[in-house]
Automatic annotation (TrEMBL):
This is Yeast cell wall synthesis Kre9/Knh1-like N-terminal domain-containing protein. It comes from Gymnopus androsaceus JB14. The lineage of its organism: Eukaryota, Fungi, Dikarya, Basidiomycota, Agaricomycotina. InterPro entries: Kre9/Knh1-like_N. Residues 1-21 form the signal peptide. It comes from the Eukaryota. Keywords: Signal. Residues 38-117 form the Yeast cell wall synthesis Kre9/Knh1-like N-terminal domain.
Length: 129
C-alpha cells in the first residue's frame, strides 16, 4: 500500500459523513472522541505483529452516534488505515490490528482514532521484527 496524505483526507471525509448522517437523532446520540491509552510514548510495535489499540471508555456516552476507524500517521505527514470502519460503541475499548510488514522502522508513528473529529495519540516506535 502506498502511503499518501489523501488517505488522511479520506478518513476525515469519511468521518464528516458519518457524523452528519443522522442529525435528527443527535439529541439521543452523542459524538465521542475516546482518549487513546495504547500505543503511547514508550510503546514499541513490531512489524507484522498483532497488537491492540486501546482507549478509555470512562467518558463513553450512553449512546454513541459515531463509528470508529484507526489510522496510522507516519512522521506526522503520511497516513494509512489500520482498521476498517467498526462499531465504536460495541468495541469495548480496544480494536486488534496487524502492524503492516512494509513500514520503515522508526520512532515517529502515531495512531489516530476516529471518533468524532479524530484523537491523535503520542508518538511511539515501530521496530523491525
Ligand atoms: C439513548 O438512546 C435511547 C434510544 O434511542 C433513548 O431512549 C435514550 O434517551 C438515549 N439516552 C441518552 C442519554 O441520550
Ligand atoms: C486485545 O485485548 C483483548 C481484550 O483484553 C484480549 O483478549 C486480546 O488477547 C488482546 N490482543 C492482543 C494482541 O493483545
Amino acid at each position: 500500500m502506498k502511503f499518501t496524505t489523501s488517505l488522511l483526507a479520506s478518513a476525515l471525509a469519511y468521518l464528516a459523513v458519518s457524523v452528519n448522517a443522522a442529525p435528527a437523532r443527535r439529541s439521543a446520540l452523542d459524538v465521542w472522541d475516546p482518549t487513546i491509552t495504547s500505543p503511547v510514548a514508550g510503546t514499541v510495535w513490531t512489524l507484522g505483529s498483532t497488537v491492540n489499540v486501546t482507549w478509555s471508555t470512562a467518558d463513553e456516552p450512553v449512546n454513541v452516534s459515531n463509528g470508529g476507524r484507526i489510522v496510522l500517521a507516519v512522521n506526522q505527514f503520511e497516513a494509512l488505515y489500520l482498521s476498517p470502519p467498526f462499531n465504536l460503541a460495541a468495541a469495548d475499548g480496544f480494536f486488534t490490528v496487524t502492524v503492516p510488514e512494509n513500514l520503515i522502522p522508526g520512532g515517529d508513528y502515531q495512531v489516530v482514532l476516529f471518533g468524532d473529529s479524530g484523537n491523535i495519540g503520542p508518538s511511539f516506535t515501530i521496530a523491525a521484527a
